[in-house]
Design brief:
The chain has 486 residues and is of the alpha/beta class. Helix content is 40%, strand content 12%. The strands form 4 sheets. A 6-stranded parallel β-sheet has the order 1-5-8-9-12-13, sandwiched between helices. A 3-stranded antiparallel β-sheet has the order 3-4-7, with helices on one face. Helix 3 links the parallel strand 8 and strand 9. The longest helix has 40 residues. The radius of gyration is 22 Å and the shape is globular.
């Protein structure tokens, strides 16, 4: 383990507002929360690395070990006199900088500083030199929330020193997309005294054991023709897999996936990304055309997978290989193993095939997921979904001043809070290519448009209206926070 000396925590007197937000829209295959591929923009506003000494175990009174956690800082738009601080919550992948999405527009509007803290274990913020199952016991959303709280205190103190301020704090507000969106909502829930509000974009606040609604949403987003083509393609692939598995795996460039469930999960995810990230026509147009022309659907789908999913989108087949997931080395590819550990212990989101009218293969079932957890991490690993929802509240989260947003085509929206309640408005951004994090990334969601430009959305007005609601809520909650000095 990388040990650093114990340091004295900083305690601050007055309140401020920080906005926590995701930095890189990372993609973790199989669970598809965020995107980790070559399609992700590397157009960072800053990629200068800074370091914070973090506590390893926030829940122990006896373990005082520390580790170094990476973060970034952007002060280009900051108004030192009274500007807020936006902290982008990084999620289940390496955090390599602060990207240029709609947060840039918000930072300019509010005169905000932007900071981004890398999630523990991911990227360069691993406490250990090995990601053995034993060493992963400090990887959880609960520990991550305390990381954010400790960092918030530290950063405010360091900013005061930089600005020669002897008292008072800036304003803070919380932002996040996807799993970081859930962290954003949970941060406001658990630490309401540390933030005036939260934006929880595509926030998966409900842990789900068998997430059948995921596949059902893909069918709805695809529409009747494309859905039928996908279902027929899946049926044909399963037939060929039984007859000559080596040949069909080779057709898709995935010969290393020896387990049928891994291979069929890979093919299911290849379709998912088209709808989740705002490129539905890239998949549906050629597949429907092939079906209407009586062409080989498996060949047509393989062409899409190799040219788009593995090609321009940049996913590595190896991320679906359980042999790869068992690798405990701390490398750039560690994110796959790390997120699966969180899946297998906290949130599940098992994307199983529904009993009827499924698009994905029936091989992707509950047993497949549980076997993977056992094979990769050993005996005794099981997702405590009920405990997670008991701790945070799931869709019944009893928070306040949290904005929830979801894209109409996003399969993850069914694990989010889609109905408004007092002090927690919820908005659906509805359009043909409105997927994961549309309110902050625009269309398509991948590749990223500068400043989250929404002009390529099939209904830009829908995005603009939701963004206006976001701005109004941020403005209101910041002003209320400053008035009460809380």
């Amino acid at each position: 383990m990388k040990l650093t000396p114990t340091t004295t925590p900083f305690f601050l007197s007055v309140f401020s507002i920080i906005i926590l937000w995701t930095t890189s829209f990372a993609f973790t295959p199989r669970t598809f929360l965020q995107l980790q591929s070559s399609a992700v923009s590397t157009n960072y506003l800053t990629d200068k690395e800074l370091w914070f000494t973090q506590t390893l175990d926030h829940f122990s009174a006896y373990d005082h070990r520390k580790f170094e956690q990476r973060y970034y800082e952007l002060l280009d738009f900051f108004r030192p006199s009274d500007g807020p601080i936006f902290l982008r919550i990084c999620g289940e992948s390496a955090c390599n900088g602060i990207s240029n999405d709609y947060l840039t527009v918000l930072a300019k509007k509010f005169g905000a500083a932007v900071v981004a803290l890398e999630h523990r274990y991911y990227g360069k913020s691993s406490p250990f030199k090995s990601h053995s199952t034993e060493n992963l016991k400090y990887l959880s959303s609960k520990q991550a929330l305390f990381d954010l709280a400790a960092f918030r205190q530290y950063y405010q103190e360091s900013l005061n020193l930089k600005l020669n301020k002897t008292k008072g704090e800036n304003a803070w507000f919380v932002f996040g997309v996807s799993y970081p969106g859930a962290l954003s909502a949970w941060f406001r829930l658990k630490f309401p005294h540390l933030t005036c509000g939260s934006l929880a974009s595509s926030a998966v606040v409900e842990a789900v054991f068998n997430y059948t609604e995921f596949d059902q949403q893909i069918g709805e987003s695809a529409g009747p023709e494309c859905k039928a083509a996908l279902q027929e393609t899946n049926r044909l692939v399963e037939q060929r897999l039984a007859a000559n598995g080596k040949a069909v795996r080779g057709l898709f460039g995935a010969t290393q996936l020896d387990i049928d469930g891994d291979f069929m999960y890979f093919l299911a995810d290849a379709a998912v990304i088209a709808f989740q990230y705002g490129n539905p026509d890239r998949l549906c147009s050629p597949l429907v055309q092939a079906k209407n022309n009586g062409e080989d659907l498996v060949e047509a789908y393989a062409k899409y997978v190799k040219e788009y999913y593995l090609g321009s989108f940049g996913v590595d087949v190896e991320t679906y290989n359980q042999k790869h997931l068992k690798n405990t080395a701390v490398t750039e590819g560690s994110s796959d193993r790390l997120w699966w550990f969180q899946v297998c212990t906290e949130v599940a989101y098992f994307q199983v095939a529904p009993a009827n009218d499924s698009i994905r293969s029936s091989k992707v079932d509950t047993k497949y997921h549980l076997d993977l957890c056992k094979n990769v991490f050993g005996e005794g690993i099981y997702p405590e979904v009920d405990a997670t929802n008991l701790y945070y509240g799931g869709k019944r989260i009893a928070g306040s001043k949290i904005v929830f947003t979801n894209g109409s085509q996003d399969p993850w929206r069914h694990a989010s809070k889609q109905t408004s309640s007092p002090d927690m408005p919820s908005y659906i951004v509805s359009c043909h290519n409105c997927g994961h994090g549309t309110d902050l990334r625009g269309c398509p969601q991948v590749p990223l448009s500068p400043e989250g430009n929404a002009e390529n959305c099939s209904n830009p007005d829908a995005v603009h209206k939701v963004r206006q609601q976001i701005v109004e809520n941020i403005d209101l909650w910041l002003s209320e926070c400053q008035e009460t000095d809380v």
